[in-house]
Structure formats: C-alpha cells, structure tokens
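Per your request, structure below.
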C-alpha cells in the first residue's frame, strides 16, 4: 500500500498494474491512483465484483485465469459507469456460467437496462462459458480473434440484440451464421472464402433492414477471375455501395521484407484502431502464414431485397 501512496503523490502520466489475487485488487482499487490507465488481472474470480476501478482506467486485461459469469456481469456494468470508452480484453481467460436458466432469467431485466455502449469487449480465445453468458449482456461491440467454437458463435449471434459492431476471425464461412438485427458494422477475416461463400455471405447480410458497413478480408486460393466477376456485378447493384473491392497479389514482390507480407500489412487508412488490433492479433498469434494473395472488400449494404440472390 505504501508503493501506491508514493505513486499517488508523484506526477506520473500512466501506471500499469498486474494483479494476481483479490487482495491485491482491493489495494489497487483503494489506492486512488488517478493516473492508472491499464490493469492486468490474473487468477480466479468467482464471487460478485466488489471493487471500484479508478475513472482513469482505459484498458483492463483478464489473463491466465477464470471468472464466473456473475463476476463478469458486474465488471461490465461497473466499467460502463466510468464515463468514457474502456477496452476489456479476455486473454486466455475462461468464463464459467454457473447459473441455472431461471437464475439468468431473473437477472435479465437488470442486465439489459445497463448501457454497455462504452465498453469494447475483446476476446483472444473463445470458450463455451462465454457464449452461454453473452446473450444475457447487452454488449454493443465484440472483437474475437481465435474462434474454436464457431458453431456456438453462430447460434448466439442472432440473440445479441444490442450488438452494433462485430469484428471476428474465422477459418471459413459458416452458411447458417446470421447477424443480429441491431448490427451496423461487420469486419470478418477469413482464412479462405470461396466465390460461392462470398455470394452467400452478402445475401445473408442483405436481410437487414438498415444500412450495414461491411468489411471482408480473405486469402485468394482459387478462381481469381470469379472474384473479378463478382466485383463487376456488385458495383452495378443499387443495394450495394462498393467502396473497395481489391485483389492484392504480392507473390512476385521482392521489396518490403517479411513485414510487408504479414496480416497487419493489409491494414489501410480506413481501418480504425479496433480493426488493427484484430489484424495484429490474428497475424501474430493465430494465422502466421504470409498474406501475399488476398482480397479486401469494403461496402455499405443498404437494405434488403429478396430479388438479389446467391448464385
């Protein structure tokens, strides 16, 4: 506690703290460190959240541990009261859903009254307990990198009725994956996406009744001419406002070194900081193969029209 007192008295611009147990967490939250920007939590947290984080907190990382769904609920609600945008990042952190369906139902009114629009939930690696818990939370922003349970994601996505921004990485396209009606922005990185899967994805997105900004990034492994035909077709569609449809081929390029062939190098000025976080994590920790032949698409999907179907 003496160290926190010294730091509090100093004019320190930023302090990052790693917490491994609830006792240390209580010291941090009681320390009144007004410059505290980042906290890393390790360990197991099973009871309801009992602490108040400093209003200066911008980034909270949960790593190498686990928590109950109750604890995560309380954390999200508390972070939403800090009065500014906060990133919550689950890094190798498991969520266990210990509640029965009746217990969850009893808490839904309280949980869905909480405004979580200022909390950006980012997940490095998914787990079943997280998917079981997400539909009870009115999160508006979700960023997921390593997805091992795509079938569970596909099941819960339509139930995330407040979700507006989704950024995910997938091995390939799942035909039954549909977005919630609330969605406004989608960024998906596929390891591969066939021309027919691309058509099907866009057709599914056309079922929304409002404008959705959509970005896709995937390796081109076959039939490059087919993507060219799709580009021409989409550019003529009134319901699709194509801003970018580019096939990038670096296979013959010799300049730039390894950095120019990473997934992060696919970023451009239209990608915001959360898009770039996804590109960096996927490229550094999951899909480390070179990105030398890929397609990047950015479009506004304006409204639904069943006459425009997959082919």
């Amino acid at each position: 506690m003496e160290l926190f007192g010294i730091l509090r008295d100093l004019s320190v611009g930023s302090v990052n703290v790693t917490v491994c147990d609830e006792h240390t967490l209580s010291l941090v939250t009681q320390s009144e460190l007004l410059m505290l920007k980042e906290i890393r939590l390790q360990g197991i947290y099973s009871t309801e959240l009992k602490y108040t984080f400093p209003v200066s907190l911008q980034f909270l990382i949960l790593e190498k541990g686990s928590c109950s769904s109750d604890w995560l609920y309380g954390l999200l609600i508390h972070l939403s009261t800090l009065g500014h945008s906060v990133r919550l990042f689950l890094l190798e952190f498991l969520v266990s859903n210990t509640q029965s369906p009746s217990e969850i139902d009893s808490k839904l009114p309280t949980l869905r009254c909480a405004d979580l629009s200022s909390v950006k939930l980012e997940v490095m690696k998914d787990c079943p307990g997280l998917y079981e818990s997400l539909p009870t939370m009115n999160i508006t922003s979700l960023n997921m990198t390593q997805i091992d349970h795509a079938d569970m994601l596909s099941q819960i996505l339509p139930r995330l009725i407040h979700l507006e921004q989704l950024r995910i990485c997938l091995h390939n396209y799942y035909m039954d994956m549909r977005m919630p009606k609330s969605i406004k922005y989608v960024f998906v990185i596929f390891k591969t996406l066939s021309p027919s899967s691309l058509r099907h994805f866009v057709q599914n997105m056309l079922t929304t009744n409002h404008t959705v900004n959509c970005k896709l990034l995937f390796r081109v492994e076959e039939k490059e001419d087919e993507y060219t035909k799709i580009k021409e077709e989409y550019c003529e569609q009134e319901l699709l406002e194509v801003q970018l449809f580019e096939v990038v081929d670096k296979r013959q390029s010799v300049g730039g070194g390894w950095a120019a062939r990473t997934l992060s190098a696919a970023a451009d000025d239209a990608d915001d900081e959360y898009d770039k976080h996804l590109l960096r994590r996927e490229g550094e920790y999951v899909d480390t193969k070179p990105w030398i032949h890929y397609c990047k698409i950015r479009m506004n999907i304006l409204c639904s029209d069943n006459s425009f179907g997959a082919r």
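Confidence is low (pLDDT under 50) at residues 305-311.

Regards,
D.
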